[in-house]
Structure formats: C-alpha cells, structure tokens
Amino acid sequence: MNDELKRLSLLAVEYRDIGCTVVEVAGLMTEKHPELKKSPFNLALILRSAFTLSVQDLHNITAWTQGQISRQVLEERLGVEQR
User: How many CA atoms does the CB half-sphere of 52 hold within 13 Å?
Assistant: First the structure.
C-alpha cells in the first residue's frame, strides 16, 4: 500500500471512530478523492482497514461507486441505518 492509501486508511479509521458508517466513509472518500471511483480495489483497501467487510459488501460498494445501485440500496444491503 502506498503512502497516500495508508493516509486515507488512517483517515477512514478516524471517521469510523467518530461514528461514521461505512457508506458515509465511502461517500466522503469518493467525494474528496474522485479517482477512487475509478479504482475500486484501492477504495476496498481503504475501507477494509476500518470496517469488517465481506467480499459481497465490497462488490456492493463497487456497484454503488459505478452508479449501478443507489446509496439507499447500498445502505440496505450493508445493513446500515439511514440517518
């Protein structure tokens, strides 16, 4: 993992620690770093550092970043309560 991914991974952990959900962290990361939408593997590395995610969860996150499912559907599939 390169230095930028390590930095973003630590940031994801900080977001998790203050109560952000995996969907919120994914949204923040892709909003602030749009290149992550084009690199789902890097986004997965970042999110897995902060959350326990299954392969299916990562597939759902990738589908969301690629516009195949809505944020609401992603939250439902990951069992995240909407705020």
Answer: 1
